[in-house]
Design goal:
The complex is a heterodimer of chains A (243) and B (62). Chain A is globular. Chain A has eleven helices and no strands. With 243 residues, chain A is mainly alpha-helical. Chain B is mainly alpha-helical and 62 residues long. Chain B has four helices and no strands. Chain B has helices at residues 3-6, 14-31, 33-36, 44-57. Chain B starts with a helix and ends in a 5-residue tail after the last helix. Classes of the chains: A mainly alpha (243), B mainly alpha (62). The A-B interface holds A 7, 46-47, 137-138, 141, 167-170, 193-194, 196-197, 200-202, 204-209, 211-213, 215-216, 220 and B 22, 25-26, 29-30, 33-34, 36-44, 47-48, 51-52, 61-62.
């Protein structure tokens, strides 16, 4: 699985595609595959791990299970529903792009995603890093940020730095607000400070979490606090996913 | 000479201000990852407060 990449990818799409992207709907698409499932995969607790499911990997990415949420099929199905309900093509396309980006990002780990669902339960998986979600939040953070997963997050963060001006008030007022009716709808209920918070929080969290996790994983945590950027790391974790 | 006109503007540059806010967020996250580093909603109160405070502490808008 990916961590901060899901928070940052939608901003890059907005930077590259401009008014064709509604940032809020792209973020919803990016978060949607995990929003109802990830808490169950991790179970309760942070430093200790109380499992909820007997097979969290199957539940998260497989079928039978909730793995259909990590498929292009599900992304297109929800996109169709958004289009029917809102009649807004930009919102629907933005959702689809966010959801597909999530699916493709998650195909980089060892479990991967059911790319051809519902016709096949075959998992497309590149195995750049090991899926360790079944071990709970703390160990997954160690696994992800000591492996190529953390590099994947850093790649998006560094690329997005080039477009830092898109987080200014000027950009929000001159580019974002006029191009997406979501903001004028939101403005009926709240002011600019709250709207800026909604716009900026995911990106801010993306940067803070990448820096914070790297410091915590390498300097505070004492469970395997070493970088391993080899293919398929970390190798201390049990192998998950198709072989 | 008018002292008020020559008083230096001690307000922060907006980029410096947001780097300080980011450093605070990272410090909170490293101190208590379970409360600050697991989801974007955990940073929303800090971003809201920092956005509200920014015009009072910084020169110009960012």
């Amino acid at each position: 699985m990916s961590w901060a990449a899901h928070d940052l990818e939608p901003y890059l799409f907005r930077a590259k595609l401009g008014a064709r992207i509604s940032i809020v709907w792209c973020l919803i698409g990016s978060y949607s595959p995990d929003v109802l499932t990830k808490w169950a995969v991790y179970g309760f607790g942070f430093s200790h791990h109380d499992a909820i499911l007997s097979d969290p990997v199957q539940f998260h990415r497989g079928w039978p299970g909730a793995g259909f949420t990590h498929t292009p099929f599900w992304g297109f199905a929800v996109t169709g529903a958004i289009l029917l309900l809102t009649k807004n093509r930009t919102w629907a396309f933005s959702y689809l792009l966010g959801a597909i980006a999530h699916v493709l990002s998650d195909s980089l780990d060892s479990v991967g995603v059911m790319m051809l669902f519902p016709f096949s339960t075959w998992h497309m998986h590149f195995g750049l890093w090991e899926y360790v979600g079944e071990a709970g939040r703390a160990k997954d953070a160690v696994a992800y940020y000591t492996s190529l997963g953390g590099v994947w997050d850093a790649f998006w963060a560094l690329w997005l730095l080039r477009y830092w001006r898109m987080f200014t008030i000027t950009y929000f007022r001159d580019e974002l607000y006029p191009s997406d009716p979501f903001w004028s709808w939101m403005h009926r209920f709240t002011g600019e400070t709250v709207m800026l918070t909604v716009y900026r929080t995911s990106a801010f969290f993306g940067y803070a979490s990448i820096i914070g996790w790297y410091i915590w994983v390498l300097a505070i945590n004492d469970f395997h606090p070493h970088l391993d950027w080899s293919f398929g790391a970390p190798h201390w974790a049990p192998r998950q996913g198709p072989r | 000479m008018n002292d008020a006109e020559e008083a230096p503007d001690r307000r922060l540059h907006p980029v410096v201000y947001w780097l300080i806010v980011l450093a605070i967020a990272v410090s909170l996250g490293v101190s208590a990852p379970a409360f600050f580093l697991l989801g974007f909603w955990e940073m929303a109160p800090l971003v809201l407060f920092a956005t509200w405070l920014a015009p009072k502490l910084t020169r110009g808008h960012l």
